[in-house]
Amino acid sequence: MSKKLKFGIIGCGNQGSAYASFIEDGLVPSMELVAICDIDSKQTDKLSQKYPAKEVFSDYKALIDSGLVEAIVTTVPHYLHPEIAMYAISKGVHVLNEKPAGVYTKQVKELNAFAAKHPDVTYAIMFNQRNNPLYQRIKQIVDNGEIGAIRRTNWIITTWYRPDAYYGQSEWRATWGAEGGGVLVNQAPHQLDLIQWIAGVPKAVYAKAAYGYKRDIAVEDEVTAVLDYGNGATGVFITATHDILGTDRLEIFGDKGKIIVEDSKKVTVKRLYKSEQEINAGIKASGTRFEFPDGKQPNEIAEEEVFTTDSVWGAQHSGVLENFARHILHGEPLLAPGADGIHGVRLANAIHLSSWLGKEVSLEDFDDDLYLSMLNEKIEEEGKYAPKP
């Protein structure tokens, strides 16, 4: 029988319970669930009734120190991700952090630096959309240069509808002190990761964000951000939680074609037969009538490919879990190294900071201390939670 990674789940809410089901149902063949942990005994009781052979803990340090587990996942509130991850790494226990890596760049940089000092301990992050065949194929097309150098990206992702009743379920939801933000921190981290994973990390961002715009919350429920990639290429990222009809449309426009993604299901790729610069140089014009080079008609300058991919529910998350286990056991390359988590956190922070300051914010020399200072001002205004260190 092949060796399995002894695994512990810290946080037994919806996500932690789902991971337990994936493992116990055989979707993660290289992993064995041996322990669970939550400060709420009601949560661990539910899982214990379903999986009675697991060791139960109420303190994450006790689970990590128990010697029962070789690795953990942190399905806990966002602010706790770095704290728990660093403790586990210090004890030689491998870590799969739930997204986001943290709430503010200062704590995520500390985590990344700490993990880098322990290269024998694996640190990964649950960017399950990187395991989505659709986005893997899109990244491959871009990386292969099939649409040329990127000129513009546009992503409208407003399918995160949340009514006031959703926010009213728990006091910690949509707060600066407990959750660290709104749609950027809770719903959209995967898209913030994907756009950078596929198109590259922006150099700067200018953003308009609305706080409690259409919901009775303190944090952002709508965002429009303009990305600057530093080479003339730009991007637009729009997200919201109050669009009851919702739109999910991604466009990546390059000098040799474009990619259009609708509802994260259907992909249309248009590839020019030459780069736009080459076509442009050979065009003859008569008013607004154009004669394309090489005798091409307008409908002949590009080839079109349309495809969809199947992604069974649970396959993305369980695939990341399996990849994490196989990396530790067999050296398989990681789908999502933990160090990559800084990119999405920094972009979310920069969007907040830009909207607060009313100006463009650099991501290359992002001011971690200024962001944390202004975040703590928001936390103090709420009056519910202590400022962050």
TrEMBL record:
The domain of life for this entry's organism is: Bacteria
Q: Where is the GFO/IDH/MocA-like oxidoreductase domain?
A: 135-259
- A single Pfam family, by name? GFO_IDH_MocA_C3
Which segments does the entry list as coiled coil?
none
Q: Where in the numbering of this chain does the Gfo/Idh/MocA-like oxidoreductase N-terminal domain appear?
A: 5-121
Q: What is the lineage of its organism?
A: Bacteria, Bacillati, Bacillota, Bacilli, Lactobacillales
The molecule here is called Gfo/Idh/MocA family oxidoreductase
